[in-house]
Specification:
The complex is a heterodimer. By secondary structure, chain A is mainly α. Helix content of chain A is about 75%, strand content about 0%. In chain A, strands 1-2 form a two-stranded antiparallel sheet. Chain B has 11 helices and 4 strands, in the order H-H-H-H-E-E-E-H-H-H-H-E-H-H-H. A two-stranded antiparallel sheet of chain B has the order 1-4. A two-stranded antiparallel sheet of chain B has the order 2-3. In chain B, a hairpin with a 2-residue loop joins strand 2 and strand 3. Classes of the chains: A mainly alpha, B mainly alpha.
Chain lengths: ~375, ~270
């Protein structure tokens, strides 16, 4: 009887219900999409007085968001520390660059190949996922170094230190994307799709499984989660997203060289995830935004302040000091990241900072 | 070795260890060349200053994070590493500095020429290994530190001040790192930081984490392989020797996968 009753609901009502549900679940995403869609209109007049080309930087934020979301799934949700995401980013960039420049592939196919190759290499190195904690962190860092050395030394394929130049810009079959605004929309449409997919993945059965193995692998295994398999799959997904981001990056920049994909890149990707907030899709967006804009702001700072002491102006590396300090201070005072801190303020009217120096009664 | 000490007593992998080496070299340069102090005094001062930096870092960064998770602590030490490196650049803007050799020149053995500096490196390494060994096995503080590495709660129950031990560990590790930096590299430069950190960790892992002699063995094995493998590659396979930089990383991964307890380490059984 009950089943018959359900069947009387017309299909269009069901579809509508599903649609409403989908919108309600991804409300933040939609708001963000609208924000981005109108961004070029207000960002352009704002760019000149700030001394930062907002749209130009936002394209990169989009690219790094994709890589950071992948890393966040791996680190935040599955709890597997990876300091080697930069390797997959580089593999993606080189794959797409080599295929389009040397083999004459169309750009979209190059990027798809970048995703596939990165995922396959992720599968190839998956045995290191047997390691835990520090060991995993160091082994992935080792991967990053190995990849970097290969980019530099395989001169016949990668061009060595010279890198690869004149990489074609982003394009779909039939449509070339030439303007900055076009690139901005191109990157962010992909980034938003990835964000939506990852947000839904995190809420799904798979998402619950990987969160379970973060808490306790033994307990997850006991509940019937295929721990080794889940880890490998999530690692491959993370690698594939890294590759996608790398592919987009290569076509945005137009040239690549090995030093772009050194360990520093892996570390800044990890920083994006941690500063933004782990175990949160929005953490990746916030982290990518903050970490990408930070150096630009530091660069533009003298323009805002006007006069700067000579020795500060001459010294070009103070970006490192500020970056390091922000990293340390965030870890100490806001260890769960910006997004969590902000939601604490809004939701519980609680300070986003913690006091780590407070003594506990029982240590 | 510094890695080992810190890991032993705090369970933290310190990515700023390489920067301790950098500071050791740079301070030795400042004291001996710029200020014109006699070399032994300059060396002692450089090691002392580096030790103070290590202690300060422990109090300001590591102590607040003692209850945080692994990732947070790792990121924080990476932050410290970046910060230190930029500070170094601020005060020592040139790319490389030459610390004078302890005794210049070289002498010939049958079949090989050995520089005196090499003997100093060897001698100081042996001495510091012996001292660390004696410290960990025959002094109260050293034994307390080992107790912390085995079980922090239990150590705290028998009256050991765990956080103070962590402070001591950082001071000791920084001092050793500084010493390593200034004897190992007559040329103190910046690129050494992170790469040196990975090499140090590899040496510690190859020898077995938490084993002083293991770290030395690991260091020797790594050093030998780094010299031998690129030679082998160039001669036999005919590829560029630039792959040398990847040797440490490959070795690290292989050892971690095949023999995670290290060459000298004893096997452990993981309990659920």
């Amino acid at each position: 009887m009950l089943e018959e009753k359900q069947d009387t609901v017309p299909w269009w009502k069901k579809a509508n219900r599903g649609f409403t549900y989908l919108i309600r679940r991804n409300r933040t995403l939609l708001v963000f999409a609208v924000f981005l869609a109108v961004m070029p209109f207000w960002a352009k007049p704002l760019s000149a007085p700030l001394g930062i080309d907002l749209i130009f930087v936002m394209r990169l934020v989009g690219v790094f968001t994709i890589a950071a979301v992948g890393l966040n799934l791996l680190m935040g949700y599955a709890g597997q520390v990876s300091l080697g995401q930069g390797a997959f980013f580089g593999i993606g960039a080189y794959t797409s660059a080599i295929l389009t420049v040397k083999a004459g592939f169309p750009v979209w196919l190059g990027i798809i190949m970048a995703i596939i190759i990165s995922a396959l290499i992720g599968l190839l190195v998956a045995p290191i996922l047997r390691l835990k904690g520090h060991y995993l962190a160091m082994a992935t860092l080792g991967l990053g170094i190995i990849a970097f050395v290969f980019f530099r030394e395989m001169t016949w394929l990668t061009g060595g230190n010279e890198g690869i130049r004149s990489i074609p810009g982003l394009a779909l079959p039939g449509i070339g994307v030439t303007s900055r605004r076009g690139e901005f929309y191109f990157v962010w449409v992909i980034a938003l799709i990835i964000l939506a997919l990852c947000a839904n993945l995190a809420r799904s059965r798979v998402g619950r499984a990987i969160r379970a193995l973060h808490q306790s692998e033994v307990a997850a295994e006991a509940m019937g989660v295929n721990v080794a398999g889940s880890k490998i799959r999530i690692f491959m997904l993370s690698a594939a997203l890294g590759g996608l981001a790398g592919g987009l990056f290569a076509h945005l920049q137009g040239f690549i060289d090995p030093n772009m994909f050194s360990i520093t890149l892996s570390i800044s990707l990890v920083t994006m995830v941690v500063v933004g907030g782990m175990e949160s899709i929005w953490g990746a967006v916030a982290g990518a935004g903050v970490i990408t804009f930070l150096p630009k702001i530091v660069e533009a700072l003298p323009k805002w302040l006007g006069e700067v002491p000579k020795w500060v102006e001459r010294y070009s590396n103070y970006e490192g000091i500020i970056f390091g300090l922000i990293l340390i201070l965030t870890m100490i005072f806001m260890p769960s990241g910006i997004t969590r801190g902000l939601s604490d303020v809004v939701r519980y009217r609680r300070s986003p900072f913690i006091n780590p120096f407070r003594k506990k009664v029982v240590e | 070795m510094g890695f080992n000490i810190i890991y032993n007593s705090t369970g933290i992998i310190n990515f700023a260890q390489g920067e301790f080496c950098m500071f050791g070299g740079l301070f030795a340069f400042t004291f001996s060349v710029s200020l014109g102090l006699p070399l032994p005094l300059a060396v002692l001062l450089a090691v002392a200053v580096t030790a103070v930096i290590g202690g300060t870092m422990e109090r300001l960064v590591v102590y607040p994070l003692r209850n945080a998770n692994i990732i947070t602590a790792i990121i924080a030490t990476i932050g410290v590493s970046i910060f230190f490196k930029s500070m170094g650049r601020l005060f020592w803007p040139k790319e490389a500095y030459k610390v004078p050799e302890f005794t210049g020149g070289s002498f010939s053995l049958p079949g090989a020429t050995v520089s005196r500096q090499f003997l100093w490196v060897l001698g100081l390494t042996v001495i510091s290994v012996l001292l660390v060994y004696l410290f960990f096995n025959h002094t109260k503080a050293g034994k307390a530190m080992r107790a912390c590495s085995i079980n922090r709660q239990a150590a705290s129950l028998v009256g050991i001040n765990v956080s103070r031990m962590s402070l001591y560990a950082f001071i000791l590790a920084a001092a050793l790192g500084g010493l390593a930096g200034l004897i190992n590299a007559p040329y103190a430069s910046y690129s050494i930081g992170l790469f040196l950190g990975i090499k140090g960790f590899t040496a510690a892992v190859v020898g077995g984490l938490g084993n002083t002699f293991g770290a030395v063995t690991g260091g020797l094995v790594l050093g030998l392989l780094e010299e031998l493998i690129p030679g082998f590659l160039t001669v036999v396979l005919g590829v560029a020797s630039g792959y040398k930089d990847a040797v440490a990383a490959v070795l690290l991964i292989v050892v971690l996968l095949l023999r995670p307890q290290g060459i000298l380490g004893k096997g452990t059984v993981e309990k659920v």
